[in-house]
Design a protein that fits this description.
The structure holds 2 protein chains of 2 kinds. Chain A is mainly α. Chain A is 72% helix and 6% strand. Chain A has a two-stranded antiparallel sheet with strand order 1-2. The mean pLDDT of chain A is 88. Classes of the chains: A mainly alpha, B mainly alpha. Chains A and B meet through helix 1, helix 2, helix 3 and helix 4 of A and helix 1, helix 2, helix 3, helix 4 and helix 5 of B.
Chain lengths: 145, 134
């Protein structure tokens, strides 16, 4: 923010606009957080409810995962396909939403550019790997044991 | 690091009322969910590559410490969802800014309405499992 004198003698304040490139990215990130968040409310809460209330943590097993995703080599049912799409959309939205949220929190407390890039670079690699690993797993289906 | 200490000490001194605490809890719950998400996605992906390791991961979730952890996860998830909806709706519909305190009150009430039965069912089931008669 800069202060300058207007011709009338009054002091006016002008805000220096952000560089356009960064501004555009931040605007897109801001919009993404709102819309992905609104979708994730329904996806994540229904997923939590199915796993923790309907099934229960103590009943989880590889067999239950196979029942939802379908087994590798078996023909995929409509139910399997719906679950795989549901998990794939949730996986991508939640991971990117969480990554951007973490970027904002880290950026508020870590001011060194190098250490910020180190933390976020490492987290981006982990998240990128998990998105690819997870999507590939959903694509091929669970291994029957 | 010093910014973090300043944030905590000044955060306690700053009298921002509910809005400030809603912001703090939104960050803490978000980071908590992200931490579990990384663990969870890794564990679930193993179902396609290494079923034995996947089952080991699930056995870990069945331990008592995770039974307590899943209660915190439920609290983080429900709070983050409803407070996030409040933030998104207020920013997409600026005319609703007329009464932000009312929006805040509703988000707290809705969080409690959704969270209370969830926690009771989950805690009840865990108590039954760990302390109930076999």
């Amino acid at each position: 923010m800069t202060t300058q004198s207007a011709p009338s003698g009054k002091t006016v304040r002008t805000v220096k606009p952000l560089a356009l490139g960064r501004n555009r990215f931040e605007r897109a990130a801001w919009m993404f957080m709102r819309y992905s968040g609104l979708v994730l409310i329904f996806l994540a809460l229904s997923h939590f409810w199915i796993q923790h209330i309907l099934i229960g943590t103590q009943a989880l097993s590889q067999a239950q995962t196979v029942a939802f995703w379908g087994a590798q080599g078996n023909p995929i049912t409509i139910g399997n396909l719906i679950f795989r799409l549901y998990y794939a959309v949730m996986l991508v939205l939640a991971m990117v939403h969480g990554l951007n949220g973490t970027r904002q929190v880290v950026g508020d407390y870590v001011h060194g550019k190098q250490i910020f890039m180190l933390i976020m670079g490492a987290l981006t690699l982990v998240v990128g790997f998990l998105i690819v690993f997870g999507l590939f797993g959903l694509l091929i289906g669970a291994k029957a044991n | 690091m010093s910014t973090l200490v300043t944030t905590i000490t000044d955060g306690l001194r700053y009298k921002g009322k509910q809005g400030q605490w809603a912001w703090v809890f939104h960050r803490v719950s978000g980071l908590g969910i992200m931490f579990f998400l990384v663990l969870h996605v890794f564990g679930m992906s193993l179902a396609s590559f290494n079923p034995a390791a996947h089952e080991q991961m699930l056995e870990l979730y069945k331990q008592p410490v995770f039974a307590i952890g899943e209660l915190f996860l439920a609290a983080c998830l429900v709070y983050h969802a409803i407070n996030g909806a409040r933030i998104a709706l207020l920013e997409l519909k600026p005319e609703w800014w007329a009464n932000p305190a009312k929006a805040m009150r509703w988000s707290i009430i809705l969080t409690l309405i959704f969270l209370a039965p969830t926690l009771l069912i989950m805690a009840g089931r865990s108590i039954q499992h760990f302390f109930g008669a076999p």
